[in-house]
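Re: export button greyed out
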Amino acid sequence: MTTPSTVIDTNDTIAKRWRRATEEPAWIRITLITIALTFLTLFLVLPLTVVLYGAFERGIGVWYAAVSDPDALSAIRLTLLIVAIVVPLNTLFGVAAAWSIAKFEFRGKSILISLIDMPFAISPVVVGLIFVILFGSQGWLGPWLSAHDMRIIFAVPGIIIVIAFGTLPFIARELIPLMQQQGKEEEEASLTLGANGWKTFWYVTLPNIKWGLIYGIILCNARAMGEFGAVAVVSGRIRGETNTMPLHIEVLYNEYMFTAAFAVSSLLTGLALVTIAIKSAVEWNEERRQRIAAA
Amino acid sequence: MSIEIDHVNKHFRDFVAVDNVSLTFRDGELTALLGPSGSGKTTLLRIIAGLEQPDTGRIRFHGEDTTDLHVSERGVGFVFQHYALFKHMTVFQNVAYGLTVRPRKTRPSKDEIKQKVMRLLELVQLDWTAHRYPHQLSGGQRQRIALARALAVEPKVLLLDEPFGALDAKVRAELRRWLRRLHDDIHVTSVFVTHDQEEALEVSDRVVVMNKGRVEQDGSPEDVYDHPANPFVYQFLGNVNLFHARVHDGIARIGDIQLPAPEFQGYKNEQGQAYVRPHEIEVFAGREHADALHAKIELVSVVGPTVRLELRTDNSEELIHAELTKHRFRALGLAQGGDAWIRPTYSRVFLPDERVSNG
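Workaround output, generated via the alternate export path:
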């Protein structure tokens, strides 16, 4: 009877000692956790609470009136339209760019990689100005465009172009390191097994990059909805026509309609939260599927 | 299905990976492509598979030119060093992959696929893993699944790129014997790449030794080991000691030791290098032979039943490696730091211009 208990005791001591050897002292752990939580509260939770509080301060009726205002509805419709066009476009570009950079060797590869980062480096206002200079009525292509009765600046196409430009790097940036690290052995295995390029992409590459792709799409989507600076320059801020949700919020704010501004803000924040919730749900579902299969 | 490699060249920028190689792999043969890293063996294998395109030269399967045929249409089974199993698919889905991606016209029915996959999993003795994921298997098991997956499409040729390179020594030895037996059963023309000479000699019907993109020697394992064609092959296949030798009238001299070198009959006072394997050096504790070379024992290492000695002779800077049984080592009463006398019993002399002789 005594022997087993001694054994357990020894194991316990070993386990304790081992834990201490690999972990930081308690005060470091507590300090780090406190810093992280304080920052999260100050810069994330607090603003979110303020937005929601401001939106519903005067009751749900006022909130509903603000978001169902024709100008607000138009802004929401425009924002959703932009997302529906820009996100698929940049998904296609991101996958193609990441694929070619990770799987092929070609001249100018390093230039392509740095070019992809450009939209991050340039200020959004400058991006807007670039396109005004290109397509505006005084711009290089302006006369040709007006001769053909096409409008890009101060119209929806211009907004789509600047947002597509601004969100270009998100998906490609997410996928390039992932695909480079995965190499091309699985794709080669698929090819030797008789699958063609398209089937290899669909059955082997896509499942392998799925999480990076979803994450990139969420970031791209969030930024496409929230983009302000470049849009402000090219949209012309025509109410009910070229105002996106962020622009509409600014208009409301400038007109001292704080509750309405907060109401639309809460909707924009809500849309972002919904995409994150969708991602978490997919992730959770996938994990559960794997667990069941493994058991 | 025989494979014919006809004057194939391949370079990457300035690096010549494959330098004008011509080879024929006979039907049903298991051939090892053996060489150090960077010798072009993997590139050659990938060219056969169609994963690389040669700069010049042709590849023929059974006389039919496949050089411009896409990988997916060549009908090769390819096994990768790091398995390259599809991580997100179960073992069953992995093995079934080659059949399920076929166009509907040639795709077998679900039942046929299931039967075939289970038969292959039984062949590699892993039928119980069908519903697991690759990450739940050990390295050796993964490689067997990769082999089953390659065999599922009934390839005309099987190509293996360092198939056991990522495994530990014991699993490696087991798997290569298993591969040999498997090959004896299914008889598909197979080529495998390795840098491990023991593996090449043990498993294959034929060994092709490569270096710097060229074929150094091509022959049976015994032939290649016993009669290396040149100094490179000698050094690559096992350890070897180099002695300065003088060749004169069919005799090679290392110091005072005389060894027959009948191929150098008629040669006068030529300087050459004698190649002597560690087990071809006799070691004595005393000066029993007048011509034996005196040496100091610098290191004794016991590796299982054999003892390896590192010795330094009076007039050489290079260490001499000798190998003897533990039994004999004990009988001689040798010790580290002590004196010994050594005498090569067999040597092979290469003159600087690569004329060869056995002694």
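Chain B has a mean pLDDT of 90. The button fix ships in the next patch.
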